[in-house]
Amino acid sequence: MSDKLEFTQEVIELARISKALSHPVRVYILLKLSKMDSCCYSGDLVEELPVGRSTLSQHLKELKYAGLIQGEIKPPYIKYCINRKNWERAKKLFASFLNNDLGVSTLLQKTESLIHS
Amino acid sequence: MSDKLEFTQEVIELARISKALSHPVRVYILLKLSKMDSCCYSGDLVEELPVGRSTLSQHLKELKYAGLIQGEIKPPYIKYCINRKNWERAKKLFASFLNNDLGVSTLLQKTESLIHS
DNA sequence: TTTATATTTCGCAAATATACGAAATGAATC
DNA sequence: GATTCATTTCGTATATTTGCGAAATATAAA
C-alpha cells in the first residue's frame, strides 16, 4: 500500500499542543498556573519574565487559543487560570504518547474514512 | 522582587522538545519509531506521509538535531531509530511537567546563579 | 566506468513566529 | 467628562519554518 494517508485527530492534536508548549515563556506560564492551582495576573508575570508586556500578551493569547488557559476579567485586571478540562485532556494524550499506548491505527487514516464518516 | 529572571534548563529543554514535536509529520515519525522498537527507512515513510522526499528529510534532520532519533547508514538506505537514551529523558521531563512534579524553584533562576555557577 | 538507487543539500518562495513601542480599549475613580 | 490603570491590538521589523523541485552525494550493481 503506497497511498498517502492523512493524520488522525490524535496526531494533529499532539502537534498542536506541542506547538503551544514550544516556547520557554509558554512552558513557564503553564507550569506556574497548573502548579499554583489558582490564577495569575498578566502584570505579575511580566515582572518575572524576560519579555515585554505586549509580547507576553501574545503568548497568553496563543495559550488561550490552544485552549490551555482562560482569562477572567476582574477589572482592572485579567485573571488567568489553567483550563482544567483541556489540560487534563492534554495530559492524557501526552501520557498515551509517551507510554506508547496509541495504537498504530490511531496514527493515520485513509482519506476515504474521513470523507465518509 | 521584580528582577527579571532566566529560565532553567528544564524549562528550556521542555520547550525545545515540544518544538521538535510541533508538527504532525514529526509526531507521527516518533510515534512510529518508538512503537516499532525497530528502525525505518526514509523511503518507507515517504510512501505513507503527505510530504515530499526533501521535506521529509528536513523533518528527520530536525528530529536528529533534537537528539530524539538517530540514523544508521546501511547503503543504499539509512535506517532511522529512536535515540533511546534521549527519548527516556524526554519522557521523564514531560511526565514531571504533566504531573506537576517540577518545583517552582526549577522554573526560573537568577542571572547571578548562572554566571557564578 | 557507467548506471541505478536512496537520500540529502541547495535555492527559492510563502507563511508563520517573535519581539518591541505606540496607540487603543475598557472599566473604575476623581 | 477627564483621568488612571492593566491589558490588548496595531504596525513594523526580523528570524524561523515549511514546502517543493533540481542538483548533488554516496554507494552498489552492471
Give the helix/strand layout.
The structure is a homodimer of 117-residue chains.
Chain A: E1 6-7, H1 9-20, H2 24-36, E2 40-41, H3 42-48, H4 53-65, E3 69-74, E4 77-82, H5 84-98, E5 108-109, H6 111-116
Antiparallel strand pairs in A: 1-5, 2-4, 3-4
Chain A binds a DNA duplex (30 and 30 nucleotides) through residues 23, 41-43, 51-62, 73, 75-78.
Describe this structure in words.
The structure is a homodimer of 117-residue chains. With 117 residues, chain A is of the alpha+beta class. Chain A has one domain (6-116): Winged helix-like DNA-binding domain superfamily/Winged helix DNA-binding domain (Arc Repressor Mutant, subunit A, Orthogonal Bundle), CATH 1.10.10.10. Chain A is built from 6 helices and 5 strands. The first copy, chain A, has helices at residues 9-20, 24-36, 42-48, 53-65, 84-98, 111-116, and strands spanning 6-7, 40-41, 69-74, 77-82, 108-109. In chain A, the strands form 2 sheets. In chain A, strands 2-4-3 form a 3-stranded antiparallel sheet. In chain A, strands 1-5 form a two-stranded antiparallel sheet. The longest helix of chain A is centred in the C-terminal third of the chain and has 15 residues, at 84-98. The two termini of chain A are 22 Å apart. The interface between A and B is large, with 38 and 37 residues. Chain A binds a DNA duplex (30 and 30 nucleotides) through residues 23, 41-43, 51-62, 73, 75-78.
